[in-house]
Amino acid sequence: MSTKTKLPTGQEAVAAKGWLGAHKWLILRRFSQSSFLFLFLMGPWLGIWWVTGTLAGSRTFGVLPLTDPFVLLQSMVAGHWPELTAIIGAGIVLAVYALVGGRVYCSWVCPINPVTDAAHWLHDRLGLPKGWQPKRSTRLWILGTVLVVTALTGAIAWEVVNPITMLHRGLVFGMGFAWALVGAVFLFDVVVARHGWCGHLCPVGAFYSLVGRKSLLRISASGRAACDDCMDCFAVCPENQVISPALRGKSGETPLILSPDCTNCGRCIDVCSVDVFAFTHRFDNHVKDTELVADKAA
Amino acid sequence: MLSPAPMSPARRRFLTDTARMAGGCAVAGLGLAYLVTDARALPAEALRPPGALPEGDFLAACIRCGLCVRDCPYNTLSLAELGFDGPATGTPFFTARDVPCEMCDDIPCIAACPTGALDPALTNIDDARIGTAVLVDQENCLNFLGLRCDVCYRVCPVIDEAISLELSHNDRSGHHAIFAPTVHADKCTGCGVCEKSCVLPEAAIKVLPVRLARGAAGEHYLKGWEEKDAKGAPLVEGIIDLPDRLPGPGTDNLAAPGGFEPAFKLPGASQ
């Protein structure tokens, strides 16, 4: 670790690349999240029905069906064989996330992400301890539990408590007490467990991570030779266990972040003042050598 | 036999962690199962859209997307909101007294459903069985009081089939008729227009879920008169048909004038 470790996260990057350059992916991500939400709100708010429905199932321009594959999987496990429309919709969604990374859903689409990001921001500002940190695999256990409960009760189980669809449906159709559930997730992430919900418990994220196991779009620490150990990427990454194998890899080891836990949020690219990280595809094992990086920096 | 070797710390940790995770998931799973089971309790006044599968199957099939709600041209349907409405969160329902189902010929809600939670096998809206109308309160129904309200009968989309007016004598006035609105469950779609239109402050006719509205005959029950008609002959061969003892003159029935005196009289009895 270098002395720079003590600086606030991203400060060097702001100095090196400007505020906009150091927040590019964050801004794009917020834009993406609000766009997806706005598409659904255009109907009820403006009467423009390009997209109808919710994240669980929707219809775009009257023809394109999209279905949440996790909800549909539960439906099948519960013993219902859905109509073709829903199956096609889920197939399209699965194909897209299998290509761009399953947890791209988490960081670029899911409406709970801004909530837990805000919780993390507050958590940092208050300087709270990280609190309860169950294993990352807990969410896979919960995913399994949800499927078992679905099979035993014969009803789609997670939708009874899923804060994602409840928040989204609440915004598009009417909130009821769903805000209390969202507030609970926020509070949980602030005071009980840092990155608790998205990082450890949410079975939807776990499901999408499995979908994106072999995804094409990946972040590579291709400039790892230039790393000055400021630790900002570890500080900003919501799943920072995924960084080490790529960043600290010895020569010959891939610089690609291949863990399915990576959400492709791109914050590591933002906060790195020496541009270690970049989006690329999973077959790009290229590592920039030190001299080249040094030349560029000079 | 080998003496048990001390367990390696790694193995011990693995087993402890697995047990802890499985135990935690069992607790969480029980809680979730309770909530899921609890969500099955559909309130009687909450009606599912036409073609909805039976409630148990519906909760396995409905992904709570809201497309049926959006495609309903009369804004009849809404999605249940957590804590405010009784049905399982996010599932579509309507309350007949607020907005009834208008029974569209093209059934757009079923066309919108991507999963088949609303069964596409229902193509004729007259075959829908959303619920069954029941005249729940004869004591307040204006027609039963002898007035000619008739509103539920008039508004019924299946008039004279699902609801008919059955005449009987009005004993109160002595010289009027009672036109009793009578629901015929085999034709009633449960659309709820009658309940919506009932002029009373609280409707006397209500659409109930079929499970509440209807009884059910035993599977082995046969109606003798129907069987007899179907056979075209008495069901038991060679039965002797004895004359019936009807009340009236020539019998020992005292209620009828001209009846015989009974052979034995109770002591102290006035008659």
TrEMBL record, chain A:
Highest taxon, organism lineage: Bacteria
PROSITE patterns: 4FE4S_FER_1, 4FE4S_FER_2
Record flagged with keyword Hydrolase: no
Originating organism: Ruegeria alba
Protein name: Quinol dehydrogenase ferredoxin subunit NapH
NCBIfam families attached to this UniProt entry: napH (TIGR02163), PRK09477.1 (NF007013)
Residue intervals of the 4Fe-4S ferredoxin-type domain: 254-282
InterPro entries: 4Fe4S_Fe-S-bd, 4Fe4S_Fe_S_CS, Electron_Trans/Redox, NapH_MauN
PANTHER family hit by this protein: FERREDOXIN-TYPE PROTEIN NAPH
Bilayer-spanning residue ranges: 36-58, 78-100, 140-158, 170-192
Gene3D superfamilies tied to this protein: 3.30.70.20
Pfam family, one: Fer4_5
SUPFAM superfamilies named in the record: 4Fe-4S ferredoxins
Keywords: 4Fe-4S, Electron transport, Iron, Iron-sulfur, Membrane, Metal-binding, Repeat, Transmembrane, Transmembrane helix, Transport
Keyword Transcription (UniProt): no
